[in-house]
Specification:
One of its GO terms (molecular function) is ATP hydrolysis activity. This protein is of the alpha/beta class. The protein contains seven helices and ten strands. Strand 4 (57-62) and strand 5 form a beta hairpin. Bound molecules: adenosine-5'-triphosphate.
């Protein structure tokens, strides 16, 4: 059975912001889009889910293991791709892999090479010389070599050029085909078209939508049809007002 990540009543309070109890379940092998405007709480939530931020209420359970009780075991099963994550910036991707890879049970140097080749990461260049997009790609390579069941991505497309943005969709599909679950935050909903299976919408720290994309599409289609019907009624009304009694039926 595919692993699940359960977010159970996760709450966090900052001075001027509250993440209200958040509950949802992610399934490995699917992509969930986490949508919200600036300041909605996306990064706050992703930092908690990845085990980076330990000061929160509630719990995160992956494959039955509690983040609160066993953070190191959970961190072996989830990785975070985020602009805020730091590696050894004065070292090369290869050196980072050699130094940090040994902390991860499932680390594969071979997989690390394969992904660095695929994403055209200069293996021998120090990371501080990388552009924003290159750093994000490097982190994705690192996450793939770490071979976790879930990858959390915080606005990954922000630094990508339009050409790579398109390639990135193919990459996400390949990752999912390997059985990995993806939770990807964005405020560009177009990034999720044709790829997201589930949608979460955060609004001022509150989870307002937690649904499949299909269900949301059906709802919108129903609303469009409803709108169309209303328009018809309005036209009927117009005709009536214009003295056309024949169209009373409308
Ligand atoms: N360390 C902190 N101390 C106090 N408040 C914080 C801290 N980190 C974040 N916040 C606040 O929490 C709220 C949510 O921030 P967060 O970064 O999670 O939003 P976001 O949805 O990721 O936004 P963006 O799309 O701009 O990245 C914001 O109001 C922010 O000011």
């Amino acid at each position: 059975m595919a692993a699940v990540l359960e977010c159970v009543g996760v709450e966090k309070q900052y001075k001027d912001f509250a993440l209200k109890p958040v509950n949802f379940v992610l399934e490995a092998g699917y992509l969930t889009g986490l949508i919200g405007i600036n300041g909605a709480g996306k990064t706050t939530l992703l930092n908690i889910l990845s085990g980076l931020d330990r000061k929160f209420s509630g719990d995160v359970i992956i494959g039955g293991i509690s983040l609160k009780r066993n953070p190191s075991a959970v961190k072996q099963r989830v990785s975070l791709v985020s602009e805020r994550i730091t590696f050894f910036l004065d070292k090369t991707p290869l050196e980072n892999g050699q130094i940090l890879g040994k902390y991860f049970d499932n680390w594969s140097m071979e997989e690390f090479y394969v992904w660095m080749d695929r994403l055209e990461i200069p293996k021998g260049k120090q990371i501080y010389q990388f552009s924003k997009g290159m750093k994000m790609k490097f982190q994705l390579c690192f996450a793939m070599a770490h071979r976790t069941e879930f990858i959390l991505m915080d606005e990954p497309t922000a630094g990508f050029d339009p050409v790579f943005r398109r390639d990135f969709l193919r990459i996400l599909q390949d990752i999912m085909e390997k059985g990995t679950g993806i939770l990807m935050s964005t405020h560009i909903t177009g990034d999720l078209d044709n790829i997201a299976d589930y949608i979460l919408l955060l609004d001022h720290g509150e989870l307002k939508i937690n649904d499949t994309r299909e269900a949301l599409e059906d709802k919108v289609k129903r609303e469009i049809i409803q709108g169309y019907m209303e328009k018809r009624l309005h036209i009927g009304e117009l005709l009536k007002r214009n003295g056309d009694r024949k169209n009373d039926i409308l």
